[in-house]
Amino acid sequence: MDVQPDTDPAMVLFSPDAADEPHKPYRHLLEQCPVARSDNGSISGAAGASVLISRFEDLNWALKHPEFISSEDAVAIGNDRPLIPLQIDPPEHAKYRRLLDPEFSPKKMAALEPDFRVLVNQVIDQFLDRGECDFHEDFATPLPSTFFLRLTALPLSDLPVFLQWRDNIIRPDVEPGDFDAAAEIRAATGKEIYAYFERALDDRTAQRDHGLLSRLLDAEIEGHSLTREELLDICYLLIIAGLDTVTATLDCMIHFLARHPDERRRLVEDPTLSPVVVEELMRFETPVMVTARTVKQDVTLGDVELRAGDNVTLVLGAGNIDAEEFREPETVDFDRGRNRHLAFGAGPHRCLGSHLARLEVRVALEEWHRRIPDYRIPDGAEFHFSPGIRQTDTLPLVFGSG
Fold first, then answer.
1. How do residues 270-316 score in pLDDT, each as one tens digit?
2. Is 153 left (phi over 0), alpha (psi -120 to 50) or beta?
3. Which domain holds residue 109?
4. What was the pLDDT predicted at 242?
5. Is 4 contained in some domain?
6. Counting Cβ atoms within 10 Å, is residue 312 exposed (0-12), middle (13-18) or buried (19+)?
7. Is 152 helix (H, G, I), strand (E, B) or coil?
8. Structural domains of the chain, count
9. How far apart are CA 119 and CA 143, in angstroms?
């Protein structure tokens, strides 16, 4: 994608092919307009000015200062109320994180590894003998979604409905730029999600099970049980995040490794590299390209005035290839060492499920490459990544069975 210096920053970032080769628009933003403010409306269709922030230092500051750059009311995805804890700022935010962080702690996630490793192999067994698969459909989609439903003790038979809800919310099937149609789909889907979890919570109120929803029903914050609205707002966020971002991450990483056999060979020959492979590819690929915020009070950033009410897009992917922070940022280096990437955000709203995501991606890469060390994208295959959260529509692979 050729980028002209005077091109509108939002058009650069959200052009049809930007998610396929995101480093080009990221470079444009970093070099031409690391903090860009437009008074011509929001890229999301919301009222107000639009601000793009791309430089690592500025992103890190914005993520750590919600009193200026807030996540409250930053995005509407069919929800009636703020998503908990994503759209609740400090100090209220802290009480929800104290409740939820232990559910996704490194220790608790480590205890899940044996079961997840078994599941990974069960998924691979479904297509291994064919010698080919659509990685997105056959592996990246069912694997994290199935595991998430197990954690929440929700029926696996409901998975097709959940996946449709996920797509309706995150990538609704509308013409590009048709924000009204997208909002209608999200609103209708949101009603279905709320109704589903109303029934699920009613069932667990009558009879507890081993899942996360039952534990939330028994939980207390400052001596009080969670209200029904609080429970629903937590569930809404968990179902959307749990069914999408790991799928996108696996798509990005296997797409890269399929096209870079030397890097893949290092992982195959030394599986102990998997933790650093995950961190470096999270930085380099940044599956969640952007995250939304609003300006809560006037502030100047990078000589640009941001005004209360401005809509902000934090371009995490650009920050992750900022040469001021990373040595040779557009080179994948599994020996990089210190890696302060922003793929999981930073500050108080740092991704709640980061430890779960790391577990799922690491084990998936280990088991995939143990059983399928050699694979490639067939000649002539075409596919594209969705913008915002970089998920492929399809990812065909061919490999030797065995």
1. 999 999 999 999 999 999 999 999 999 999 998 899 999 999 999 99
2. left
3. 9-399
4. 83
5. no
6. buried
7. helix
8. 1
9. 7
Whole-number pLDDT of residue 9: 76
- Distance between CA atoms of residues 185 and 195, nearest Å: 16
How far is 294 from 246, CA to CA, in rounded Å?
A: 26
Which residue has 């991704």 as its token pair?
351
Alpha carbon distance 88, 75 (integer Å): 12
Residue 221, number of CB atoms within 10 A of its CB: 13
Exposure pattern of 223-241 as b/e (b: 16+ CB <10 Å)?
Answer: eeebeeebbbbbbbbbbbb
Angle at 197 between CA 193 and CA 203, to 5 degrees: 155
Task: Give the CA distances from residue 96 to residues 76, 101, 216, 292, 348, in Å, rounded to whole numbers and listed in that order.
Answer: 20, 8, 11, 20, 11
Query: How many CB atoms sit inside 10 A of residue 218's CB?
Result: 10
Q: Over 207-234, what HEC string results?
A: CCCCCHHHHHHHCEECCEECCHHHHHHH
- State which amino acid sits at residue 211: G
- Residues (pLDDT < 70) of the chain are 1-7, 40-48, 401-402
**Spatial distance between the Cα atoms of 323 and 84, rounded to a whole number of angstroms:** 34
* DSSP string for residues in 350-393: S-TTHHHHHHHHHHHHHHHHHH---EEPPTT----BPSSB--BS
Flag whether 1 is in a domain.
no
- Residue 37: CATH number of its domain: 1.10.630.10
Distance of CA 240 to the CA centre of its chain: 10
8 A C-beta contact, residue 290 and residue 26? no
Q: What is the DSSP letter of 331?
A: S
Residue 315: what pLDDT?
97
CA distance linking residue 88 with residue 96, whole number of Å: 9
> Comparing C-alpha atoms, which of 351, 156, 178, 357 is closest to residue 252?
357
pLDDT at 48: 61
Distance CA 322, CA 23 (A): 10
Largest Cα–Cα separation, the chain: 61
CB atoms within 10 A of CB 94: 13
| Core vs surface per residue 119-142: b (16+ CB within 10 A) or e | bbeebbeebbeeeebbbbebbbbb
pTM above 0.90, yes or no: yes
Asked if residue 52 belongs to a domain, the reply is yes
pLDDT score at 4: 43
User: Is the bond leading into 91 cis (omega within 30 degrees of zero)?
Assistant: yes
C-alpha–C-alpha distance, residues 77 and 189, integer Å: 9
Please check whether residue 2 lies inside any domain of the structure. no
